[in-house]
Automatic annotation (TrEMBL):
Family matches, as SUPFAM superfamilies: Hect, E3 ligase catalytic domain
GO BP terms, alphabetized: protein polyubiquitination; ubiquitin-dependent protein catabolic process
Signal peptide positions (record): none
E.C. no: 2.3.2.26
Function summary: Probable E3 ubiquitin-protein ligase which mediates ubiquitination and subsequent proteasomal degradation of target proteins.
Protein name: HECT-type E3 ubiquitin transferase
Family membership: Belongs to the UPL family.
Keywords: Transferase, Ubl conjugation pathway
The organism of origin for this protein: Brassica napus
Domain HECT: 691-1032
């Protein structure tokens, strides 16, 4: 138990009961495995060393042999090939075999020999005129294998030598012409052109060899290097030597009589050359060759097949300003303008061009070139792109311009749509339904992608007025609707799955184009001339659009609504369907909303044509709940829901908001002391001091009469109603100078308000809050606003056809200009407009430099719309903006967006029709001994019916504080109207009293008059006294 001095270790005992032999066995196996792996690794090292040594010895031996062959070559033929004659190129000579064996492109001496060889070849060929005999001697057929091998090696050696030396000594010699005969690159490429003569029997074998060695990749790198050099190509009409070589290679696509194999798309002309920026500017003559129908169709179809198979064949981008997909698109669109103009261009070719352009467009960020596009248009808010990696791409401006100019070119769009839609527009008795569906779908896909990427306003104008797109698509949709059959998506269309609804793509293109046309046509064209479509067609179109929209939004809705459009080409087809389906819903809703505006100007169809047929009470209850399908429909397509249902929703929203701010409490809230003879100043000072929260809460008013005495009565809501009526009449009075009247006595902001009031913009903010407060409290006010001003509450843009509501005389003059047949420049008009406010005449330019820009037949349409824009939008922009800010303090935009301008006027002022006395009688309560059959009550209703409309409004104001009834009828008057008996008996004292009222309770206190005449006299006196609330 104590240390014994023995240093040996005691035997270890495994307490687990395992034998030590087991542990030794495992250890032995592990050591054996490690030893085996070590031997295997050593074996691999030895094998690798042998291979490296073998390779090194081989390369060294080859170098020695090459060096020996080169010395023998120089001894025989000279260091600069000075001993070479024409027989040296024949099969029996060792000149070419030896040279091609030892040649190294990096060697300057070898490069000089190659240039001299090609110069001699060119001289011999030009002197004899027969290059075939130069290489084959007397009989090509017996020596063709040897000859073919030599010429294809020589041709590749030339292009390889240029490529290998392009970044060093040849950087400034790459883009030369044959006329520059002394330059080495010109000599090499001229030799290649001689060898690639289409008449020679070996040409296909040379081209096949060059394609296998990726000649287009070499050419791409040569051109890229040349563009980086200091020398720019000479554009004097001469063909570049490199361009001549491409001339001879590009046509070899494997079609008779060519026997070249099909090239891997990754190294093809399309992938390597067409992705070079502005290739047609560099090689304009190649553009002519490539435009050959059979040639261009091959390459474009090859690209289309790659798209269908989702094969990525474009080179890796090294310059973010010039990505390959954008360069390919720009060059493809540029050549498409030429190809489509040729009579031989087929439908298949047009389909391939559209498919390729669609795919490439989707990979680009949006290109916007118009300030107006980013400034207005409600649809653009729905067109915001989803943020994607591709959107970070910033293209070169010149490249953007190439894409935009060619894609929006009127000739290109006209030719493309004519070829694609020829069968549809031709109206032939027999047509291929599948071909038609494919053409419609392909053309629509391209235009849909173009709408998302290209400047929208420019492409819309071209499609609307320089193509037959609208008429063609309308005929197609009309026929499908009448036949109750829409073609399904073609299976070859990579854009969407085959089971996608056939009407998606036509509608996503038709609706925005037709909407654009409706913003430009004038009233006479639309209502009388049937432009763009007849009124009968428009009525049918409204039905088709309404059914499609209801199907999209309610019957078969998306699980997730989003108005964004992704431009990523990584999206699945299912996501594409969802995005397009959502976009179709947006553009249909916008077009139907515009149709509703036209119908409000002058009715051409029933208002019920815009409403869905199956809107139930369940739908209405759901619409109030945020996040439901019904609430989304209410936001995007409110016209589908009947006006009365939307008013119910609106009043429910108002009631909920009032309740949350305590507006129903009689004695709560802010108190105003208002002098009747200073009502506007007092209201402005006291309301402007309120916060937004206080403004939403209750306001109680005490009037002070002209003598400075507070009027009797407690404001339970009735006095506030009276105050709101009086303040709105005073504030919006044209005599005050903030508003003006149109010829139809409609109100709109005075463009010259700043000349009258120094703080006019603050007053407009106050007036916006005032109108919103009236609507918030459910008070109707008699303010007839001009439609173009109500558009500003909805943040909409006004167009030419809105001008008659402001200035019908100016509208007539502009339409005269539009239809003027002579030379408009003779009228001496310029892009300026004269403003005349309160006798002060000012001149304002419609465009920068407009005073020097004459109106001509070419720009008259622009002038007309600029004048309209100035009068309807620009002049009142500040006033409208401040009014809107005040208005939106209480009424959110989404509440107002449920209604169009015509309906909004009804919300503000109620119906213009006379009061419905029968409706009031049916919804009246009685107390104090009166009942519906009482003789005094019968006399009262007879008197009410005999009153004029003006006196009926006075009565309503007398008993409710407001001269207009509830929007949905007296059933919705809160509290319900009540007639109470005043005076206990029919005594002289009782019947001599005047009727009184309690406006906060909508109560009329009516004495029991004995005759109808007495009742009428007393009632008329009471409602006409205008004695404030002292009479009560």
């Amino acid at each position: 138990m104590f240390f014994s001095g023995d240093p040996s270790t005691r035997k270890r005992v495994d307490l687990g009961g395992r034998s030590t032999k087991e542990g030794d066995a495992r250890k032995l196996l592990e050591q054996t495995r490690m030893e085996r792996n070590r031997r295997l690794l050593q074996k691999k090292h030895n094998s690798a060393a042998l291979k490296i040594q073998k390779f090194f010895r081989g390369r060294r031996s080859t170098a020695i042999v090459r060096s020996k062959v080169r010395r023998d070559f120089c001894e025989t033929y000279g260091d600069n090939c000075q001993n070479v004659d024409r027989h040296c190129f024949e099969p029996a000579s060792s000149f070419l075999p030896q040279f091609l064996f030892f040649f190294k492109a990096q060697s300057s001496g070898d490069f000089v020999m190659l240039v001299e060889t090609c110069r001699l070849l060119r001289n011999f060929a030009h002197s004899s005129g027969d290059i075939l005999s130069l290489f084959s001697g007397l009989d090509y057929s017996t020596e063709h294998n040897t000859v073919d091998f030599r010429v294809k090696k020589l041709a590749f050696t030339c292009i390889e030598a240029i490529h290998q030396n392009s970044r060093e000594c040849l950087r400034d010699q790459l883009l030369v012409t044959p006329e520059e005969a002394t330059i080495s690159t010109a000599i090499l490429m001229d030799a290649m052109s001689l060898l690639l003569d289409p008449k020679l029997p070996w040409v296909c074998k040379i081209v096949s060899h060059l394609q296998k060695r990726n000649i287009f990749k070499l050419v791409r790198e040569i051109v890229t290097t040349a563009k980086e050099g200091s020398r720019s190509p000479t554009m004097n009409g001469s063909i570049l030597s490199l361009e001549s070589v491409l001339f001879l290679v590009v046509p070899h696509v494997g079609r008779e009589p060519c026997c070249c194999p099909v090239v891997d798309p990754r190294w093809s002309f399309s992938s390597m050359i067409l992705t070079i920026p502005f290739i047609w500017q560099l090689f304009p003559n190649l553009k002519v060759v490539f435009a050959n129908p059979s040639l261009s169709q091959h390459y474009v179809h090859q690209m289309a097949l790659c798209i269908q198979k989702d094969t990525h064949v474009l080179p890796i981008d090294t310059n973010t300003e010039f990505p390959g997909n954008a360069c390919l698109l720009g060059n493809t669109l540029e050549i498409a303008n030429v190809v489509l103009s040729q009579p031989e261009c087929s439908l298949d070719m047009a389909i391939d061009i559209a498919s390729v352009a669609t795919f490439l467009l989707e990979t680009l960020p949006p290109i916007k070139s118009s300030e107006r596009e980013s400034r207005h248009s409600s649809s653009e808010e729905d067109d915001d792109m989803l943020i994607d990696d591709v959107q970070e791409l910033v293209l070169n401006r010149t490249l953007e311009q190439q894409i935009t100019t060619n894609a929006i070119d009127s000739r290109f769009l006209l030719q493309l749509t004519n070829i694609l839609f020829h069968q549809v527009s031709g109206g032939t008795q027999s047509y291929d339904e599948d071909k038609e569906a494919l053409a419609i779908a392909t053309g629509s896909s391209f235009l849909y992608a173009a709408f998302n990427i290209l400047p929208l306003e420019r492409i819309m104008t071209v499609l609307a007025y320089r193509t037959e797109l609208v008429a063609v698509l309308w005929n197609y949709m009309k026929r499908c609707h009448e036949n109750q059959k829409w073609s399904s998506m073609p299976s070859v269309l990579a854009y969407l799955p085959a089971d996608s609804p056939g009407w998606l793509l036509p509608l996503v293109v038709f609706c925005p184009v037709y909407k654009h046309m409706l913003t430009i046509v004038d009233n006479e064209e639309f209502y009388e001339r049937g432009k763009p479509l007849s009124l009968q067609d428009n009525r049918l179109l409204i039905i088709i659009l309404k059914q499609a929209l209801w199907q999209l939004l309610w019957v078969n809705p998306l699980t997730q609504h989003n108005s964004g459009i992704s431009v990523s080409n990584d999206l699945s087809k299912k996501n594409r369907v969802d995005l397009i389906q959502n976009r179709v819903g947006v553009v249909i809703a916008e077009l139907l909303s515009q149709f509703q505006d036209w119908n409000n100007r002058q009715q051409f169809t029933s208002s019920t044509d815009f409403q869905a047929d199956t809107v139930s009470e369940y739908f209405i209850t759901q619409a109030i709940v945020e996040g439901t399908r019904a609430s989304y429909i209410l936001m995007q397509a409110p016209f589908l829901i009947p006006f009365t249902s939307r008013v119910k929703i609106f009043t429910t929203q108002l009631a909920t908001a009032r309740q949350s701010h305590g507006s129903e409490e009689i004695f709560a809230g802010n108190r105003f002391r208002i002098r009747r003879d200073h009502i506007l100043d007092d209201a402005y000072n006291q309301m402007s001091a309120l916060s937004e929260d206080d403004l939403r809460g209750p306001i109680r008013v005490t009037f002070v009469n002209e003598l400075g005495v507070e009027e009797a009565g407690i404001d339970g809501g009735g006095i506030f109603k009276d105050f709101m009526e009086k303040i709105t009449l005073a504030a919006f009075d044209v005599q005050y100078g903030l508003f003006k009247e149109t010829v139809d006595h409609m109100l709109y902001p005075n463009p010259g308000s700043g000349m009258i009031h120094g703080q006019h913009l603050q007053f407009f903010h106050f007036l916006g809050s005032l109108l919103a407060k009236a609507m918030f409290e459910g008070i109707l006010v008699d303010l007839p606003f001009a439609t173009f001003f109500l558009s500003k509450l909805k943040q909409k843009y006004n167009y030419l056809n809105d001008l008659p509501s402001l200035d019908p005389e100016l509208y007539r003059h502009l339409i005269f200009l539009k239809r003027y047949k002579g030379d408009i420049s003779d009228l001496e008009l310029y892009f300026v407009i004269l403003n005349n406010e309160y006798g002060e005449r000012t001149e304002e330019e419609l465009l920068p430099g407009g005073k020097d820009m004459r109106v001509t037949n070419k720009n008259v349409i622009t002038f007309i719309h600029l004048v309209s824009n100035h009068r309807l939008n620009f002049q009142i922009r500040q006033q409208s903006s401040h009014f809107l800010r005040g208005f939106q303090q209480l009424i959110p935009r989404e509440w107002i967006d449920m209604f169009n301008e015509h309906e909004l006027q009804v919300l503000i002022s109620g119906s213009a029709d006379s009061l419905d006395i029968d409706d009031l009688r049916e919804n009246t309560n009685y107390s104090g001994g009166y009942n519906a059959g009482h003789y005094v009550i019968d006399m009262f209703w007879e008197v009410m019916k005999s009153f004029s409309t003006e006196n009926q409004k006075k009565f309503l104001k007398f008993v409710t504080g407001c001269s207009r009834g509830p929007l949905l009828g007296f059933k919705y008057l809160e509290p319900a109207f009540c007639i109470q008996r005043a005076g206990g008996s029919v005594s002289n004292e009782a019947v001599d009293r005047l009727p009184t009222s309690a406006t906060c309770m909508n109560l009329l206190k009516l004495p029991p008059y004995q005759s109808k005449e007495q009742l009428e006299t007393k009632l008329m006196y009471a409602i006409s006294a205008e004695a404030g609330f002292d009479l009560s």
